[in-house]
Amino acid sequence: MNVKQRIMNGEHRIMNHKLRNSIFLVLPSGMAKPRYSIFCLLSSVFCLYFVAGCGSPAISKNPLAEQVDTLTQDKRELTRQIEQLESKNKALQKQITTLHGLADDAKLKDLCDVQRVKITKYTNLFDKDKDGKKETLIVYLQPIDQDGDIVKVAGAVDVRLLNLDKDKDPELLAKWRVTPPRLRKLWFNALLKTHYRLTFDVSDKVESYEEPLTIMVTFTDYLTGKVFEEQKLIKPR
Fold it and tell me: Is residue 187's pLDDT more than 80?
């Protein structure tokens, strides 16, 4: 065997040894990759999966960022309040201009002047729950101005329910006070019914309603300061 032949045999043995010690995988693309590369790739994927599977601690918000959010909200609220105040200020300025434009001889009574109050005929005790006992007092009240019109005005109402039987001493059965904010919500304006409708519970104040009772009303006009009194005898129906 000559020298060339021995060299070729040696190279062939080296190649066989490498093939025995290296395992190749053929990928879909047809390219051969050593197995240790796939092993590294799988190891990396496993590590990532393990890290992702572990519960990660909650990320606390930066205190400075929280302060910025709070200040931003406060600024929005203050801006909204300023806009509301500016709107009210414009309305007041317009009102002042209008008042300055009125004639010098304009008087308060020319605007609205209540002359009297009237308790209407519908005022009485009623059985609202249909149990046979009249437990609800409803007072229908109408303020009337200088032209004889029924008007809605700001004021307070004091109502008293009395038994003025001539054979007995006057007896105060109940009394109530209706403040201006509440009175404003009790106004009804319909075709044939324009009045304040005041409702009171008398279930524990009137034992039996067999004899006439008296309603006394005191109306205080908050616009002029005038006080009006009216009373009405109500009879069982």
Answer: yes
Tokens of 43: 């190891």
- The CATH-assigned architecture of domain 111-234 is Sandwich (2.60)
- Domain locations in the chain? 3-50, 111-234
Q: 74-107 pLDDT, tens per residue?
A: 999 999 999 999 999 999 888 888 777 766 666 6
For residue 201, count other CB atoms closer than 10 A to its CB: 12
Concatenate the DSSP letters of all residues of the chain into one string: --HHHHHHHHHHHHHHHHHHH--EEE-TTS-EEEHHHHHHHHHHHHHHHHHHHSPPPP-PPPHHHHHHHHHHHHHHHHHHHHHHHHHHHHHHHHHHHHHHTS-TT--HHHH--EEEEEE-TT-EEE-SS-SSS--EEEEEEEEEETTS-B----EEEEEEEEE--TTS--EEEEEEEE-HHHHHTTEEE-SS-EEEEEEEE-TTT-S---S-EEEEEEEEETTT--EEEEEEEE---
Predicted TM-score (pTM) of the model is 0.58
- CA 43, CA 40: separation in Å to the nearest integer? 5
